[in-house]
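Design review, sub-item: ligand-bound model
Attendees: FS, YL, KQ
YL presented the inputs for the nicotinamide-adenine-dinucleotide complex:
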Amino acid sequence: MNNSIYNFPFPNNEPILSYLKKSPEREALDKELKRQSSEVIEIPLIIGGKEIYTGDTAKIVMPHKHSHTLAIYHKAGEKEIKMAIDAAKAAHKIWSDQNWATRASILLKVAELLATKYRATINAATMLGQSKNIYQAEIDAACETIDFLRFNISFAAEIYKTQPISSFNQLNRMEYRALEGFVFSVSPFNFTSIASNLNMAPVMMGNTTIWKPASTSVLSNYYLMKVFMEAGIPEGVVNFLPGSGALIGKNILNSPELAGIHFTGSNNTFNSLWREIGEKLGKYKSYPRLVGETGGKDFIFVHPSAKPREVAVAAFSGAFEYQGQKCSAASRMYIPSSLWEEIKNEMIEISESVKMGDVRDHDNFINAVIDEASFDNIVTYIDYAKESLEADIIFGGTYDKSEGYFVSPTFIKTTNPHFKSMEEEIFGPVLTTYVYKDKDIDKAIELCDTTSPYGLTGAVFGQNRLSVVDICTKLRYAAGNFYINDKPTGAVVGKQPFGGSRGSGTNDKAGGEFNLVRWISPRTVKETFIPSTDIFYGYMKE
Ligand code: NAD
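KQ shared the predicted structure:
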């Protein structure tokens, strides 16, 4: 037995590569984009390390060119869901019994493979399948995935190190057991890194998972799964199960072995899972841990002392990068009337300088939204604004799904602070602003705090320090990630632990110790060296 105490210091964040023309990373990526664009791969389920082809298939297409099929994937039926539960159960003993440094070393190898050998693969799959430009794919599929893996090991080391006090005649220990059962990891389409972390965080702490990837991100998620396997994650530790969310969810929630759900996605899905678990509580061996990051209606609040150019740049990138499909994307703004004209003109100028189109043309800042359902949903908000007397479209407002699902960045100004697009999550490139009178700033802060049911991200812009502090205090519960003079997107692992409360989730802060503790069930062990042989209390013997 190796008796070393391992020390994993905090790593540095994975550097974001530049992808300048002729750089080695750009050449490797372009070659990989060509390769993946010229083939149609077949994606199996992976259960207990075995590839399974069910024959019940669906297509993965490029959102920016939906006539182009990238892959055919097989979908799980009831039989395969049961197989996955059995495989996760079977792998639990060996994985949870492993020395944690062995588990850490495998995860570090996943990170290393993604940083080097498979960087271009995972970025290209994320670009083509989820319609991200190079930069958006690099910060997500490569850098954030790698950061989650490396940082979580250091956070785990801190947790494992925490031990209770002992005194004469006794030794007290905390044993950090994995949960008893398996974790159901349910991932969204929008971040490859989240899909990885929803599995790898519980796996680091000794758990096994059944992974339900979003149907529109199966391509990049399959490549991830293959990297997990190449790095040496034993069979059955992660079970890759694409298919119908409703069918998989229903069957998984019937298993007494369900020990937790690690979820990121919409409120509707998380609420329905939570509700169903509540109804079935008597069924489970343990109370399942429910960790969910859900929707957002993220804001930018502008104080009259703000600098218009800084606000405009942050608002444009915070709202429209990756087509507004980040849970943290700015989607509502509060601008004082004294700055409105300047901010508006700056934003119009920026909007005229960006291009939209296929991810393989690297001049395109904006690409497509994920699929037709999402496109149609976003369009209803734009059309609603066009028809409303309470709203003006400042720029954008156009859309076209003939070749790809393209919606131009759309900026709406409304006179109604409760306008539909100020309140509801749209998950697309639509930003709405309410322009408040400078003298009514307190009312505007109140509106910002109370308008939406969410509490994910928010930003305040201003040069007046005391006012900024005041706004930060008044909006304490409006955002779990709050930014001062910066856009509300782009949280970095280890630097801005991510998550929000209210309707935005359980706020367990992905990529940190608060999240990892949800995947362990500590056992306290007290050992007495010389047990007492006397039943009476001291005062009884006087
Ligand atoms: P979604 O809820 O449609 O899907 C998420 C996952 O749930 C998918 O894998 C889907 O197949 C699965 N699913 C659907 N029904 C299910 C069921 N009955 N049982 C089990 N699984 C089921 O979300 P999406 O469209 O993929 O992602 C967009 C949403 O995710 C937005 O609301 C966004 O705000 C949110 N999001 C939040 C965060 C955060 O950190 N708060 C991060 C990213 C995305």
